[in-house]
Model the fold of this input.
Amino acid sequence: MRKRIVVSFSGGKDSILALHRLQTSGKWEIDSLLTTLTEDYERTTMHGVRHELLELQAESLGIPLREVWIPRDCPNEVYQERMQKEVNGIVADGIGHIMFGDIFLEDVKTYREKMLEGTGLTPIFPIWGEKTDAIIAEFLKKGFKTVVCCSDTESIDASFTGRVLDAQFIEDYPAEHDLCGENGEFHTFVFDGPNFSFPVAYKLGENRLAKDMITNKDRFYYVDLLPAK
Done:
């Protein structure tokens, strides 16, 4: 009997590949995609992708969304309160597991495990501890397609934003940084792949440079991905 699981979902390459691993294992029933969005912007909180594109992505994957809405510059206690409410709802629905696409950040993994202690929800990490170059190779070999929607200009050049991750991207990418962007070098939006029923059409909109909330310095370079009719 397959176990029901919720997928912590950013819409980026790591969570999509980890989801695909679960789907092809035959061991899991995917209940839903759990995503955090920012109320004032109506975009995914970490990647800044429009809600409409997220909905199209979920539609193509054939999996319903569970949306957690948080305010802009959300205090940690508010985030934890709203996430706890969602976790309680997931458990009440009879679901016992949640998936994360983390690769090697021990502090992030530990935070997730501690947050879920005693909730009845067990975290699963399908790609944890794997080499990032192997993850990218698998991602591309399986036919996934993704575009960089944000880059950290303190790590990589802003010109990587808006580019599709392909062989040329890998060749141009600075060797001293993690190829999966696991340290926050960049974030992505996956628009096609073997578990998509249709490609999510998009076009590149305006670019903007956002400040680091801690240092107040211009740092994160975003491109506005627009639905392409």
Residues 206 and 224 are 5 Å apart (CA to CA). The chain has six helices and ten strands.
